[in-house]
Design goal:
By secondary structure, the protein is of the alpha/beta class. It has three domains: about 5-90, no CATH class; about 95-375 and about 445-465, Alpha-Beta Barrel (TIM Barrel); about 380-430, no CATH class. The chain has 20 helices and eleven strands. Helix 3 runs antiparallel to helix 4. The protein is globular.
């Protein structure tokens, strides 16, 4: 049977399933049978046969099974196959360390790197980002997921990485894909109770992420800064010592030939604004604690007045946020000129007014993290089914009422907790009908367009190619 006739038959088979557009492979053999004409496998080696077929039905089926198949062997083989196909097409998970070090040396710059936390519709949202990046010839952008998001969105690192690589395949992207562990954060209560156990739990997560090809990891030990100490260096000591311990662990476990980009953090988001004294105390202590000659961090996160997700008002709208751009400018300059870092990282920025984003470039921010804005666009899109939204909100009220503050209106409570709907309802959201998914994807693409424009990140693919090996 000809390859295209075979695929036509597969399409007919797919229409017989309850979800119509999605099918679950029953075995690894079934998986490879459905890929005939697109690729072939012999002795564990996969060979790409027809890129067009791979980017058509094949990759959609593969990523669905890489996320939802209940047969562990099939699920893992789907993920492995996605990685193999990506490699064959010149798509690879990569570290942004080389680019950031070049920025720190002043060899390139003038743009800010958007780092996007995708909590729901991950494959579709990543596709939208790649479409936008290709239009603008940009390659400096990051997909990331935080420690907390891994839990409540039910996306382990291997699944998240598979979604990003599959999206690149689908859209015909070529080049590095930067996948990042965001806010790999120390739990302060657990740290006080058992410091070694808490550090070991983070090491376990870091190892899982590296094994999933996360070659960019942000360590957040700012939660254990001890403000009861009178001296700033002593306040930062638990932070820089823990960050150094975890950086050493990363260096010991990173693949040969790859220097993972590591980030540190000096001010917990939502706390007081960071100072130059804190930055210097952290960096001097961190450098002194790290073994001589070992690569350190490439960037530093600070607090400048934002909070994750924004601050919801009683009616459910979000309060306007004031960002201390002067602090960004001052600390970015110190980070680059004194310590050779690419600059500072801004968290909690996606709910800022659109007209504010260009200021991050002007003030020298190296990287900006964006999360809740994408979440809001998905939930608030006219393409998102109202009946599904009501079902999710009911679940939040039933399952998370203990998180509701006495002063919270229902609108405030829903806004703060609806991020936790992406995990339990992942399959329902993933399998929305094609028309709805396409509209949401187009809306997200327009948002990525805005970020590439405002962050002056158009046309930087040649620079990335030069510094990312």
């Amino acid at each position: 049977m000809a390859a295209r006739d075979y695929f036509s038959e597969i399409i007919l088979m797919r229409n017989s399933f309850s979800k119509g557009d999605f099918m679950e492979f029953k075995s690894v053999g079934n998986l490879y049978d459905s890929m005939k004409g697109a690729l072939k496998e012999k002795g564990g080696v996969v060979e790409l046969v027809d890129e067009k077929l791979v980017r058509g039905e094949a990759i959609d089926k593969l990523i669905y099974n890489a996320v939802f198949n209940t047969n562990k062997e099939v699920l893992e083989e789907s993920r492995k196959l996605i990685k193999s196909l990506a490699s064959a097409l010149g798509i690879r998970s990569a570290s942004i360390h080389g680019l950031y070090m070049a920025m720190g040396r002043g060899e390139c710059g003038g743009f800010t790197v958007p780092a996007s936390n995708i909590r729901g519709l991950t494959y579709g949202a990543a596709r939208a980002c790649f479409r936008s990046a290709m239009k603008h010839n940009s390659a400096a952008f990051i997909f990331e997921i935080a420690k907390s998001e891994i839990s409540y969105t039910e996306q382990r690192p291997a699944e998240y990485a598979a979604c990003c690589l599959a999206a690149a395949i689908k859209e015909g992207y070529r080049g590095p894909v930067f996948i990042q562990g965001d806010h790999f954060q120390v739990n302060a209560k657990n740290y006080v109770k058992d410091k070694e156990a808490e550090i070991n739990s983070l090491k376990k997560l870091i190892k899982e992420a590296i094994d999933a090809d996360f070659y960019n990891i942000d360590i957040d030990a700012s939660t254990v800064v001890d403000l009861t100490k009178p001296d700033v260096r002593e306040q930062q000591r638990p932070n820089f010592e823990t960050t150094a311990i975890l950086t050493e662990f990363i260096r010991a476990n990173e693949p040969e030939g790859i220097t993972i980009s590591v980030g540190g953090e000096i001010g917990e988001v939502g706390g007081k604004n960071s100072t130059e004294e804190e930055l210097r105390a952290f960096m001097d202590g961190f450098i002194g604690r790290l073994p001589k000659g070992m690569a350190g961090i490439s960037k530093i996160s600070i607090q400048t007045g934002t909070s994750h997700g924004g601050v919801p008002l009683p009616d459910g709208t979000v309060a306007k946020v004031k960002v201390d751009f002067d602090t960004i400018e001052k600390l970015s300059k110190v980070a680059r000129e004194v310590y050779g870092l690419c600059g500072i990282v801004q968290h909690g920025a996606s709910t800022l007014p659109d007209e504010a984003f260009h200021l991050f470039v002007q003030k020298g921010a190296a990287e900006v993290h964006l999360a809740t804005g994408y979440q809001n666009m998905i939930y608030d899109s006219s393409a998102f089914p109202q009946d599904l939204k009501k079902e999710i909100y009911k679940h939040l009220i039933d399952a998370h009422s203990d998180e509701r503050k006495p002063t919270d209106t229902e609108e405030q409570f829903i806004y703060k907790t609806r991020k936790k709907g992406f995990g339990p309802f992942k399959h329902q959201i993933w399998t929305l009908d094609e028309k709805r998914r396409k509209q949401i994807g187009s809306e997200l693409e327009a948002r990525f367009d805005l970020y590439f424009d405002q962050f002056n990140a158009k046309g930087n693919a040649p620079i990335v190619k030069k510094y990312v090996s």
